[in-house]
Design goal:
mainly alpha
Length: 123
């Protein structure tokens, strides 16, 4: 049974729920589905300065994640995967030539970050 059909059968009306589902929410949740991206977003969204060097971000993310990954591994993941993905989504501004990253701000991401942070801190 398709999800829209399931929702209709559960609610007893013929309204097409698929038109009400928010694709932007899917995108935001997708960005937050990775622990390294979440850690990077926690750091850049709370930084006091306007922008930061990616190596500084990698150091803070490595500390935040508390994993066996060294800073070079985190730096590589950030520069080759996570920062370009977040930049493409408009969440950060990433300049790979100057190795600087700046949080662009996004109300939906900030709201979800607050919620995920509260959950992760309670663990």
């Amino acid at each position: 049974m398709a999800s829209a059909d399931f929702l209709r059968s559960q609610n007893g009306d013929a309204e097409d729920w698929s038109t009400e589902l928010d694709a932007g929410l899917d995108d935001a949740l997708g960005l937050l589905s990775d622990r390294t991206r979440r850690a990077a977003l926690y750091v850049v969204s709370e930084t006091e300065s306007d922008a930061m060097f990616v190596v500084d971000l990698a150091q803070k993310v490595a500390l935040f994640e508390d994993t066996s990954d060294d800073i070079e591994t985190v730096l590589t993941e950030l520069t080759h995967a996570h920062l370009p993905q977040m930049a493409a989504a408009g969440i950060v501004e990433y300049d790979d030539e100057s190795n600087m990253v700046r949080y662009a701000g996004d109300e939906r991401i900030e709201s979800l970050l607050d919620q995920t942070k509260a959950v992760e801190r309670s663990d």
